Amino acid sequence: MTPSLRVIDPPESVADPVREGAVAGVLLAAGTSSRFGKRNKLLATLNGEPLVRHAARTLSEATVDPRVAIIGANGERVAAALDGLGFAVVENPHYDQGQATSVQAGVRAVREIDADVAGAVFALGDMPLVAPASVDALVSAYRAGEASALAAAYDGERGNPVLFDEQHFDALADTDGDVGGRQLLLAEDDSVLVETGDPGVRRDVDTQADLDGVRERTDRLW
To answer: How far apart are CA 68 and CA 65, in angstroms?
Structure first.
């Protein structure tokens, strides 16, 4: 049975933060898009821009810094899609071995850029509808001392992105397979879900049908 995590509302403000220091943003954008077909889903267009650029803009407009993008499949084209958004781009040569290798690359990159970083938000390149405010909600709850491992939620259901305190970086570096930090989040006693009110934290794109659904939704919104 999947363990249930406590659901909290983000604080309205954090006047006296429990946790300080930089919170990095890591965009995981290295996957093979195996369920999408022959094309790389991250380069499929949504409102005239690559899907991955929408996901990256979420981090660029949120209160995370430094920002790192982990690339792999079609790396040069994915990197080009991120141009101008303030990301350090890092290649993961082992991207075909699962998402965990990209998490590991992200941890290494963040530590190299800022050895004193307090924590990191890990976001997925195939989730174009996450609002920057949802990332900020994670950061606010983290700074308020709510937990050391936090995941965005909508209607009480776990989604992405996730935030891990630096104390978990060594464990993240030891993850394997295609689950990233999910097992760590679910196993950690000091984990919470942060209610964002944002359906985008539950909307990823794995298939062409998923992309069609996202396009339909954005057509209604925009």
So the answer is: 9
- Residue 111 lies inside a defined structural domain of this protein: yes
Q: Which two tokens stand for residue 134?
A: 């949802």
Name the token pair of 43: 């380069």
Q: Can you read off the two tokens belonging to residue 195?
A: 């209610």
pLDDT digit string (tens) for 52-68? 999 999 999 999 999 99
Show the tokens assigned to 48. 């005239």
Does the model's pTM come out above 0.90? yes
CA pair distance 100, 121, nearest whole angstrom? 15
Tally of CB atoms within 10 A around 44: 20
1 inside domain: no
Residue 182, token pair as written in the block: 């999910």
The domain tally of the chain equals: 1
Nearest Cα to Cα of residue 181 among 124, 114, 127: 124
